[in-house]
Amino acid sequence: MNRLFLAATTALLMSGAAVQAQNAALVEVGDNVMLMPWNKSAGEIEDAKVLKDGDGVELGEIEEVLGSDANTPVALVVDFEGSTTGFTGNKVIPIDRFTPDGNRLTLKTSAAEVASFPNYGS
């Protein structure tokens, strides 16, 4: 009886962890979703150039806008391919690390912190 209870409890806890992990996953937001306080839509932000804070060197561009759900943007995917600054790959970076600058975005973080952010895609 104790083994059956233990097995059932373990299965319940594991399924709860899976649900929590799914809830934490980010999804692409629609192009018409607004990124407040910038007053720009996700579609307007995609393909925007990303500049390094301080010296304005181009690092890459925005590939996707991700959210906790399809209407709540929380992060941007930056494609650093071709960057000569040491930043590489596609990284998921919280929106609060960016400042809008016209049609460009300035990234306010260090290379070490960027390396710690999760990769996007493969």
Automatic annotation (TrEMBL):
Lineage: Bacteria, Pseudomonadati, Pseudomonadota, Alphaproteobacteria, Hyphomicrobiales
Superkingdom as given in the UniProt entry: Bacteria
Cited InterPro entries: PRC_barrel-like_sf (IPR011033)
Protein name: PRC-barrel domain-containing protein
Keyword field: Signal
Signal peptide: 1-21
